[in-house]
Amino acid sequence: MCDVWYNVCMNASDKNANSCRKDGRPKKKFAPQPKKPKTAKDLADIALLDDLRFGKGETKPTDLPLACVVKVISTMKVPKARNAYSMVTVMGPEKRTWRMCVKRGYVRAGRNMLFISEDAALPVALRWHNDQVCSVKDRVYNFGFGYKIRKLLPHVKHNIYRHNNGVLYPTAAFPELKHEHAGTVCAVHLCVDSAVELQAKLEAPRPKKDVLLSGKWHP
Questions:
Q1: Residue 16 above 60 pLDDT?
Q2: pLDDT band at residue 4, thresholds of 50, 70 and 90?
Q3: Beta-carbon neighbour count of residue 59 at 10 Å?
């Protein structure tokens, strides 16, 4: 009985302590503020963001190059996305256009950018580490027999735009592309490989010992 009475007293004292300030004065209780009603613009922005997230009315582009120079045709701020992302339309090889979602602040209409596909495996170099563009993951492909290939895999986000298919790098970090025009495919020039092909080679059967010793096998 004493233990029960002690617990009741302790709970009452804690409740009183939480309802008072440090100087002993009671805390003021504020009534919850009513939420502002959403305007027609707010509802339209929410609907647009939902369409981008679910890819409504669009299909994901296929057969895009691993790396190419593209021209930014237009940019549009993504509403209700904390002013952090923009939708851009780019033009690549054969004047083909597609849409992408990128971080705001570094992509402007009319400029040339380097497009990197989400399936690309980048060479290990400092210029690929750009937090404004995306984060990259270090990946080592171990083929056995002492053959290893280290690559950087770009992290392409799909939380804003479901059909996002790559990232855009400023061409300023790639002086070899200074005089290249929009539509130039440059995967071979930049030593960009396909992550899908590397993974397929990794899962393929290992060669026999005589083929390995001949020096003709290479991942």
A1: no
A2: very low
A3: 7
Residue 202 has pLDDT above 70, yes or no: yes
Bridge partners of 90, per DSSP, are: 72, 98
SS3 state at 138: strand
Single-letter code of the amino acid located at 112: N
Q: What is the rounded distance in angstroms from the CA atom of residue 13 to the CA atom of residue 21?
A: 14
pTM of the model: 0.79
Which has more confidence, 33 or 118? 118
Tokens standing for residue 216: 């003709």
Residue range of the domain that includes 155:
65-214
The rounded distance, in Å, linking the Cα atoms of 109 and 76 is 10
Contacts 24+ apart (CB under 8 A), 40-48: 45/79, 45/80, 46/79, 46/80, 48/79
Number of domains forming the structure of the chain? 1
Q: Is residue 145 part of a domain?
A: yes
